[in-house]
Amino acid sequence: MTELGPVLAIAQRDLMKLLRDRPRMVTTLVFPLLLIGVLGGSLQANLGRHLGFDFLAFTFTGVFGQTLFQTTAQGVISMITDRENDFSQEMFVSPISRYSIIVGKILGESLVALPQAVAIIAFALIVGIRASAAQFGGLVVVGLLICLLGGAFGILVLSNLSSQEMAGQIFTFVMLPQFFLAGIFNPIKVLPPYLDILSRIAPMRYAVDLGRAAFYAGRPESARVVLDSPVVDLAVIGGMFTVFLIVGTALFVRSERNR
User: Fold this and answer.
1) Considering its fold, how many domains does the chain have in total?
2) 171-186, pLDDT tens digit by residue?
């Protein structure tokens, strides 16, 4: 309980930074909606009839998972800025657990990402994507798990990077391929063996798939669009989160001590 206050303080700091940065608020809310409306709508018009399911809804669930995962992971890049401003040094000399600092950062970036989840769901209703309140509620719960996984992944990727410029380049390199390996815009039920292996080690795959499992629960299209059972997705996400958090925190703390 003594660690809860610092965790919430770090999380509140990230949320306040978003609220004060209006251009960032606009871009983070609008860009996912453009992906769903423009890309999802065009693919539905051209491919939806042949695939046998609503491609707009398929794109919606993919963009939902991808946006929350990427936003939280990318938000952790600010720890590089904190390091350059020596703010992270001030945090790490404080008498709180290193894990509390990292968890607070992940929680803060999750709070930043969740308004996007609400906006995406609202846009889905506007464009005619229909689901029950329970299905949309399940998406919100799953969205929190996706944010936690994305934050832990971001800590792992960025733990040994020395500058924000390098972080941006590396982050793009590890994130962009996952757009296709996770099946955000394209069905990946059938893949060549080498792509199937890469897909199965991509964290975003399980984030997107768990979101689709929540949305398509009880629907006949579920067998066509959901890759693994929710139990498998949850087990993999839990295992990856634990490994990413432990290893990423250890590497980050070590790099701070070596400065």
Assistant:
1) 1
2) 888 888 898 899 888 8
